[in-house]
Amino acid sequence: MTPLAGGYQLRPVDQRDPAVLAALLGVYRQCEDFLALGPQAHASPEMVLADLDVSQAAGSLYCGIYACPSGELIGVVDYLPAGFEGNPQHAFLELLMIARPFRGRGLGKHIIADLEAEIRKDLRVSAIRLGVQVNNPGALRFWQGCGYHIIRPAELQPDQTIAYLMEKQF
Question: How many other C-beta atoms can be found within 10 angstroms of the C-beta atom of residue 91?
Fold first, then answer.
């Protein structure tokens, strides 16, 4: 368990626990404003399970963001700590979603700072990469505010979204 600033914890989710899956679905439903920018606007149990499967297949770490001391699941983060595109120097942040009632409080920046510190423990990793959809200017501003820069022009993704590749070097 990694403690986060502001009384939050980041920890892997138990995919076999029906209560966890229900809580994940609740987070996804609170993030339908983000989901509406992509190919599926509405959260479903199948979407949650598909994201978990993709994360596991990629060797990523799919973690819940839990409020302390209540233990309420309030968000998710999915990341590959090293080896993005076969390069051991590159980590990749696949997903960050925070339930609507917990946004706008600086939590996202705390989570990213803590996640970056965790990833930096692997001295081989020199950069974190992530994708941002071109139709999500709020996310683009957020990531730029966290020190990330566009490194590749917008490209069509397998899910039919169009996204920039961004990076932050250490």
Answer: 28
